[in-house]
Design a protein that fits this description.
- With about 425 residues, the protein is an alpha+beta fold.
- It contains 15 helices and ten strands.
- The protein has three domains: about 100 residues, no CATH class; about 110 residues; about 180 residues, Orthogonal Bundle (hpI Integrase, Chain A), CATH 1.10.443.10.
- It has a three-stranded antiparallel sheet with strand order 1-2-3, with helices on one face. A three-stranded antiparallel sheet has the order 6-7-8. Strands 4-5 form a two-stranded antiparallel ribbon.
- The longest helix is centred in the middle third of the chain and has 21 residues.
- The radius of gyration is 27 Å and the shape is globular.
């Protein structure tokens, strides 16, 4: 008997791994139910490459399938010549393998929303800008938000004593769920909106999977948040840069990371991926893939950034978690003197709430990216140039087709502006 695993459609972005089984002059073809990017398959070694995020789980399944195929083969009653097999035995063999393959976890029955949400969290792949599904999985922080929404859906169903079905995800459910999140869970409108956004992503995925035909979820809208987001001015950024942290290496390192993030405009999740290979010191650029969009930014190594990088000749950085960084940044902001009061506003149930807080309390990794934009504008950089650094997409048709400055132009304009810091 010979068993060979192979990619069904190697030219597709994502394809199923098939099992080809041959014995006694017969050939059988089975779908393993495992789908990966063909680039993640090692044909010679018959295994999934380490680049596949779910390699361990997928290889465990392939090993189990291999073992079952062999076990079923050894159970066959061969003829006296050791080769002849009855048609009945062959059918029993096929049925046994198919039954094994069909017995894979897909959650409870198809109409069980919470069961399918678990499957969604396990299997969901991100769609690219052209809407084509990729093999890229969401970041772990995003998956944690998915799990939170799943848990809250379960709590809501329990509180209302209802069974969540796809047909039941309608406008009446929407009104009740939003009200429950706002009043009983005490969430601000921005958090409620994120729950609805994730719920719509889940419902759209389930519809693509053929689990329902309910289109009412498309009417759901995110409650608008009236909360402000802060950014630092050039003066405040200098206060962060210049505060004496000689006796506090922990905050000095966090300060450096915040400055690098500000000077590059990277999201913290992308900042944490920086490696020496991403730095083109000869031409003065950073080339790093960003996770949220398929746009490749043009990130110049500006004079202020060069000064920070000189402290890290290996270009290796020990980034702390986003949560810890946010905590330390508030401590840093207080030491730097960012104590002037600002009005922080939030909305809940459409009602506005405001309170004054010292600015350092709102300092976080999210502020770095906004600060790059704010200070660049303050230094006279046009927003059309800034967009190429941040990776923001343009909605201007003319800009899409004609206003595309070269990387060198972006580099020179941004570097010259940031010399003012």
């Amino acid at each position: 008997m010979r068993i060979k695993f192979y990619i069904d459609r190697p030219d597709e972005p994502v394809s199923t791994i098939m099992a080809n089984v041959a014995f006694a002059g017969k050939r059988f073809r089975f779908s393993t139910g495992v789908s990966i990017s063909p680039t993640h398959w090692n044909h010679d070694k018959q295994e999934i490459k380490p680049a596949e995020r779910n390699r361990a789980a997928y290889m465990k399944r392939l090993d189990a399938i291999d073992a079952e195929i062999r076990s079923a083969y050894h159970a066959i009653q061969f003829g006296k010549d050791g080769k002849a097999v009855s048609s009945t035995a062959l059918k029993e063999y096929q049925d046994r393998i198919k039954e094994f393959l069909d017995d894979k976890p897909k959650g409870p029955k198809n109409d069980n929303v919470l069961g399918q949400f678990d499957r969604f969290i396990h299997e969901y792949r991100i769609a690219a800008g052209n809407k084509m599904v990729t093999n890229q999985r969401p970041a772990e922080a995003t998956l944690n938000r998915y799990r939170l929404v799943s848990r809250r859906l379960g709590e809501f169903a329990k509180a209302r004593k209802i069974d969540l079905t796809f047909d039941g995800i309608n406008t009446d459910f929407y009104r009740q769920f939003v009200g429950w999140l706002s009043t009983e869970q005490n969430l601000f409108d921005s958090s409620v909106g994120n729950h609805i956004k994730i719920l719509k992503t889940f419902m759209r995925w389930c519809m693509d999977e053929g689990l329902h035909k309910n289109m009412e979820f498309q009417k759901f809208y995110k409650p608008e948040s009236l909360g402000e987001t802060i950014a630092l001015s050039a003066k405040e950024l200098r206060m962060i840069r210049d505060v004496d942290l000689t006796n506090n290496p922990r905050l000095a390192r966090v300060r450096d990371h915040f400055l690098i993030q500000t000077y590059t405009s990277l999201r913290y999740s992308d900042l944490m991926k920086l490696e020496p290979k991403h730095f083109d010191l000869v031409n003065g650029f950073i080339h790093v893939p960003i996770t949220k969009t398929d746009v490749r930014p043009i990130i110049p190594i500006t004079p202020p950034l060069s000064i920070v990088l000189e402290r890290y000749p290996s270009l290796l950085f020990e980034f702390v978690s986003n949560v810890k960084s946010n905590k330390y940044l508030k401590e840093l902001g207080k030491l730097a003197g960012l104590t002037s009061p600002i009005i922080v506003g939030h909305s809940k149930g459409g009602e506005r709430f405001e309170q004054p807080v010292p600015k350092y309390q709102e300092l976080s990794t999210h502020v770095a990216r906004r600060t790059f934009v704010t200070v660049s504008l303050e230094f006279g950089v046009q927003d059309s140039i800034i967009r190429f650094v941040t990776g923001h997409k343009t909605t201007d048709v003319m800009a899409k087709h004609y206003a595309k400055p070269s990387a060198d132009v972006v580099h020179d304009v941004v570097c010259e502006a940031w010399r003012k810091l």
